[in-house]
Design a protein that fits this description.
Shape: globular
Distance between the termini: 53 Å
Number of helices: 13
Largest sheet: 11 strands, mixed
Bound molecules: threonylcarbamoyladenylate, magnesium ion
Radius of gyration: 21 Å
Structural class: alpha/beta
Strand content: 15-25%
Length: 384
């Protein structure tokens, strides 16, 4: 792909100045790409009515054409331009959760080019709450298709510098409005299925949707790469949000997890690897003696703060020199905690060690280590 010059314009996240908004809207209307902050993560936007501009998104992100995009609107008033046969539930959900981090899957209107939706008959739509996203949509006067502004399968960007890391020379403009507030992507709810089904946990919790939509189905387990059926249920891929290194999750009570973590770190070191650790603030002192790359996730009891920092931490660990990452997951399995756990699970490609089940240690080590020479060591570690 030929390199283009990526401009960066600073913008006030609360009261966006008209000049950068106008510059970005001009880029969108010309069929090119703008990264902009939303309340969830940075999006990579193009005119959703322009099939050529949409193809540029897939090329810039190196995203497979089988993975459909979300269309962003300035308000729910124009929903019937992008979707047809809109069920009553969509309007009540819009009333309750828009603008905000909820994406609805509806039937696609003929006006929307097929490549936006990877050829599916459906379309994903949301109305973002961020003032910059809203100003850009108002000024562009077109719906904007925008996936997260990262290279495919990388952690989503929560700062303009993350966008630059992944997409410098590949997109035209970045509006730098500082850190996004939620830090995790929107919740995706499929209203074309009966009962309605959650496809991705995110900024709106299952519990709060359930109050309005009592028959809503929880998300299915993520699919393993290589075994997925293309396009039938997009977006459920297991490997996602991943830093450029193997990741493993340690769950379970700290009394068991802390010794397991020590053993794992020492074992990895014995194989010449340099582990990094990502743990809740209160567990940091437990691992200080390991003198390894140790990053704090935020207070274990504050899921909002953990969500805000998570993707930035996953990128920080890449700069640290660690070549394998161990993460302690102590999150509640409801609300935003469930959404964060889902991202961790995908970053780890499903490699979770529940420290209550020591029998898993062997398999866990075998996956972590470069060769298959670890079985005897893992048994040793288990006996200790
Ligand atoms: O918070 C967000 O949703 C951010 C900001 C920029 O709005 N966007 C975002 O987009 O995360 P992306 O492309 O990274 O994730 C969109 C998800 C994917 O999992 C995709 O497969 C799913 O939505 N999706 C989009 N259209 C769909 C459709 N028609 N049917 C089923 N899933 C769809
Ligand atoms: Mg994404």
């Amino acid at each position: 792909m030929p390199t283009i010059y990526t401009r960066i314009l600073a913008i006030d996240p609360l009261q966006p100045e008209p000049e950068p908004v106008a510059a970005a809207a001009a880029v969108i209307r010309a069929g090119h790409l703008v990264a902009f902050p939303t309340e969830t993560v940075y999006g990579l936007g193009a005119n959703a009515l322009d099939a050529v501009a949409i193809d540029r998104i897939f090329a810039a992100k190196q995203r497979p054409f089988s993975d459909p995009l979300i269309i962003h609107l300035a308000s729910a008033e124009t929903l019937d331009r992008v979707a047809v046969d809109i069920p009553a539930a969509a309007w009540s959900l819009a009333e309750r959760f828009w603008p905000g981090p909820l994406t609805l899957i509806l039937k696609r209107a003929p006006l929307i080019p097929a490549n936006v939706s990877a050829g599916l008959a459906t379309v994903a739509v949301r109305v973002p709450a961020h003032p910059v996203a809203h100003a850009l949509l108002e000024r562009s006067r077109v719906p904007i298709a925008a996936p997260s502004a990262n290279l495919f399968s990388r952690p989503s960007p929560t700062l303009a510098k993350h966008v630059l890391e992944d997409l410098d020379g590949r997109i035209d403009l970045i509006l730098d409005g500082g850190a996004t507030t939620i830090g995790l992507e929107s919740t995706v709810l499929d209203l074309t299925r009966d009962p309605p089904e959650l496809l991705r946990l995110g900024g709106v919790s299952f519990e709060s949707l359930h109050r309005l939509l009592p028959n809503v189905r929880e998300p299915r387990a993520p699919r393993i790469i290589g075994r997925e059926t293309p396009a039938s249920a997009p977006g459920g891929l297991l490997k996602h949000y991943a830093p450029r290194m193997p990741v493993a999750i340690l769950r379970g009570p700290v009394s068991v997890a802390a010794p397991a973590m020590h053993r794992t770190v020492n074992l990895l070191r014995g194989h010449g690897l340099c582990p990094g650790l990502l743990v809740p603030d209160e567990e940091v002192p437990l691992y200080a003696d390991l003198r390894t790359h140790l990053l704090a996730l935020g207070p274990g009891s504050d899921v909002e703060q953990i969500a805000t920092a998570l993707f930035a931490r996953l990128r920080d660990i890449e700069q640290s020199g660690a070549d394998v990452l161990l993460i302690r997951d102590v999150l509640p399995k409801s609300g935003l905690g469930a959404a964060i756990s889902d991202r961790l699970f995908r970053a780890a490609e499903g490699h979770v060690l529940d420290t209550a089940l020591e029998t898993q240690l062997e398999e866990f080590f075998a996956w972590l280590l470069p060769q298959n020479c670890v079985a005897p060591m893992a048994r040793q570690a288990q006996r200790r």
